[in-house]
Write a structure and sequence with these properties.
Layout (H helix, E strand, L loop, with lengths): L1 H17 L4 H18 L9 H31 L8 E6 L5 H13 L3 E6 L5 E6 L5 H19 L1
Antiparallel strand pairs: 1-3, 2-3
Helix pairs in contact: 1-2, 3-5, 4-5
């Protein structure tokens, strides 16, 4: 998170120095800051790995957009057809996430996907309980959600 804050500070500095508060200039300031931090990350231990997060974030956004479209189409198909295909149920998914931030992000990303809803976290924070509209294959759903968790953790760690 330190690298992102430095990137924002460098972008704001860029905007102040150029005197242009336009969206393109802010984006350019972020890119210049990203390049500067990429050069500086060898000298500053707190910045190590920062430049690897942007490609991971872009891959996750593409993955999540695909998952969002597929889930929306599945729910829409079930709504507009006269026969209900849903088989709702609750599953317990073991968590790899350890910190409060990681658990919160994983639970929120799962809840943002139509057809799934994070219900609760166990007291020991090792299991997330999820309600799913389409629970045809429990293991397949669990594997899909664990893949989503792995991708979220790649960005945060």
């Amino acid at each position: 998170m330190t690298g992102f804050m430095w990137n924002l500070l460098l972008a704001i500095t860029w905007v102040v120095l150029t005197g242009d508060v336009g969206g393109i200039n802010i984006l350019f300031g972020l890119l210049v800051g990203y390049a500067v931090l990429g050069i500086m990350q060898r000298q500053m231990p707190s910045l190590r790995g920062y430049t690897r997060r942007l490609p991971r974030l872009l891959r996750f956004l593409a993955f999540f957009a695909k998952e969002l479209v597929v889930a929306n189409l599945t729910v829409a198909f079930d709504i507009i057809t006269p026969v209900w295909h849903m088989k709702p149920g609750v599953i317990a998914m073991p968590l790899e996430a350890k910190t409060e931030l990681e658990i919160t992000m994983v639970a929120n990303i799962i809840s943002l996907t139509p057809g799934t809803l994070s219900l609760d976290v166990s007291d020991d924070r090792r299991v997330l309980f999820i309600h799913a509209m389409f629970l045809d294959n429990e293991q397949e759903l669990r594997d899909s959600l664990q893949d989503m968790e792995r991708r979220v953790l790649e960005i945060l760690r």
